[in-house]
Amino acid sequence: MLQNKQEMRSLAFAKQSQDAFRQMDEGLDIYTTKTGQSSDAIKASYERILSSIPVDSPAIVGAALGEVNTQLDFTGERLEAASLSAIKFARHQWHSTYQTPSSVPSKLRGIWPV
Questions:
Q1: Widest CA span in the chain
Q2: pLDDT value at position 57?
Q3: I need a labelling partner for 61 at 20 to 30 A (CA). Which of 13, 19, 75, 88 fits?
Q4: Comparing C-alpha atoms, which of 51, 113, 103, 61 is closest to residue 85?
């Protein structure tokens, strides 16, 4: 019986690890799709932002990096700082505007987690 519980825990851990990797990969894929670029510098910026601020999904970081890069043509530290600011601003605006999940218009539910 003990082996079965340990095996179940190991399988659960493996699944969670795979899910986390997929989410991380999805965020970087979003950036690459938006910009057509992929580099170690972007991966490093992506990881620094993820480790500096809690986000509901790593996809948010990839989307912010991609939008700031394509809209403002920022790169390097400037891209990282502006993307982080955009994430913080969007979170603040979202939560200030929609205080409860029921106040979120149905069209917007699922776009930004409440």
A1: 58
A2: 81
A3: 13
A4: 61
Q: What is the pTM of this model?
A: 0.64
Helix/strand/coil for 81: helix
Predicted pLDDT at 113 = 47
Do residues 114 and 98 make contact, with C-beta atoms less than 8 angstroms apart? yes
Please provide residue 57's backbone torsions phi and psi, each rounded to the nearest 5 degrees: -155, 140
Residue with tokens 């938006």, as numbered in its chain: 34
Least confident of 11-20, 43-52, 99-108: 99-108
Contact 49, 84 (CB under 8 A): yes
User: Cα 88 to chain center, whole Å?
Assistant: 12
Distance CA 22, CA 107 (A): 26
